[in-house]
Amino acid sequence: MDAEHASRKSHAFERLVKKAELEQNDAGVATVDYHSGRKLNKALIQKLASCEYISQCRNIFITGATGSGKTYLACAFGMEACKRFYSVRFTRLPDLLMDLSAAEDRHSLENALQKYTKPTLLIIDEWLLFKLRENEARLLLEVIHKRRKKSSTIFCSQYEEKDWYNQICDGESTLADAIMDRISFDSYKINIEYIDKSVDKSMREVYGLNPSEAQ
């Protein structure tokens, strides 16, 4: 029975990882590099690896320059969530918006929304990399609103949080207020900073990834 139970758990974990579509499914908190010229809060990262933030329905903001390892860290948290049998989904914000926009044109928006609102943990990469138009912000608000206080979201962005507002309709829309109000409260924040240029190198090199990875 123990072997059968272990086999079922292993298969369940594998299904969750496959369904999550993590960009880097070999990422792990145990292999995060803390000696690559970047400032990382190791205590906070290890705390978040427990996934307690998920049971609390709290979000995580991961910010930093291109190649700083934001995506790797987010995927590492995603893997930890899968290990605890939480449902996870990874997406890029441009892909999410294109998907929802196309679904709206097909009059099937509600079905498409479920892909992003049902997972216990949603990871959104390339968060606000480009400025949002009003219709894009409206669709994004639908996702954010339905997830609020029910699940957790990890946002990975090259921009600091203080700059996010202006990336949403140039900060002139009430949609910007609505989105930021719903995601900012009680979120954990990890800013990956450069601290030693003499030893600094891209996380793509550190983790042996392809150029398109480790954003």
What is the CATH topology assignment?
Rossmann fold
For the residues shown, what is the average pLDDT? 91
- Quick one: CATH superfamily? P-loop containing nucleotide triphosphate hydrolases
User: What is the SS-derived class?
Assistant: alpha/beta
How are the strands of the biggest sheet laid out side by side? 1-6-2-5-4-3
**Strand proportion:** 5-15%
CATH classification class: Alpha Beta
- Percentage of residues in helical conformation: 40-55%
Helix/strand order:
HEHHEHEHHEHEHHEH
Contiguous runs where pLDDT drops below 50 for at least 5 residues: 202-208
- Biggest β-sheet strands, sense, barrel: 6 strands, mixed
Mind telling me which CATH architecture this is?
3-Layer(aba) Sandwich
Termini separation: 43 Å
What would you report as the Rg, rounded to the nearest angstrom?
17 Å
- How many separate domains? 1
Q: How many distinct helices?
A: 10
Q: What is the tally of beta strands?
A: 6
CA-based shape? globular
